[in-house]
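RETRY 2/3 - previous attempt timed out on the joint model. Re-submitting the same 375-residue input unchanged.
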Amino acid sequence: MSDEAIRPPRPSIGRIFWEFLLIGATSFGGGVVAYLRNGLVTRNAWLDDKSFVELLSISQTMPGLNATNMAVLVGDRLRGVLGSVAALVGICLPGGLFMFTAGYLYHFHKSMPGAPAALKGVAAAAVGLVLATTVQLSGKSLKGVMDLIIVAVSAVGVAVFHWSVLWVLLGVGLLAVLWYRPRREEKVDEKAGEAAP
Amino acid sequence: MNANLKEIPPLLLVFFYLSFLTVGGGMAAYPEMQTLVVDVHHWLTEEELIHFYSVGQLAPGPNMMMVAAIGEKVAGPLASLLVVIAFFLPTALMTFAVGKLWKRAERWPWRESIRRGLAPVSVGLILSGCISMAKVALSGWVSVVVTVVVFGILLKSKINPAFLILGGAAVGYFALHG
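RETRY 2/3 succeeded.
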């Protein structure tokens, strides 16, 4: 156990809000995780890398976006519930105002010459971005044929057969979790040894 | 803008529900969002939804802040704020609770099974979101070229995607305008 775990830093609520506001305002182009790591681990040393990765793995398992889940978890670790609230509001505020303004301006876009054409280009670029994200994510998290089958069933089910996302999560998700159920031969001894204080 | 206040309750319900579908990323909820927002409630056209999602890629912070634009478009500023809360609060509370229990679940063997099993499901859902988007966004060879070029550049380099989105806007403006 590192010192971090014994004496967690206690930045003020205002500091937490400010730091997350800063991350929320500067993390252009997605990849908020890198900005979070830079702000929380490198710049402020509020977390060590080990805790950062641990909180990230909770964020990725739970529904919700990584960025907001991380804000909730880190805020809580630093200052309890109020820390969570400060971090969550901070990280959402700049992008929220940005998109609110965009939504407002959108009412007029058809009267701006060139705006509909520019939006077509933006949409095409966004498809390329999502596709690249999907491929990168696949490279990181898919191993073996079974994973590919699960990906195909989920994607085809929703895109071709219009299954509800909820039912895919509950149905295919449940089967997938059962497929990867804990096996008896897993190293129980090693885990027990590790958990002893 | 006449504020369509009576649309607020169904908006909240829809985004509250969508909140729970964002497993592995906001894109996982996209197909369902399209069904509910476009086909069921007719709040937006499918093009408008894609425009909001795409412009959202230019916004800093969490990926799906574009829900604020949907709220604003449908029923004004109050709806915008409420939709953001409906979309982000439920999962925030859930994560908060699970964060408390996580340490205790360290030796619970199913924890790894859940993570392991849901990973490919969420990739599949994100892929289907991508397909839904592509079906609408890719019309004509210019858009296909933009998609392929952006995809290729992102796989080969570490460039900030926001620049490529702006590049897409510029190409659209010059190649598709008029």
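Chain B touches chain A through 113 residues (CB under 8 Å). Closing ticket.
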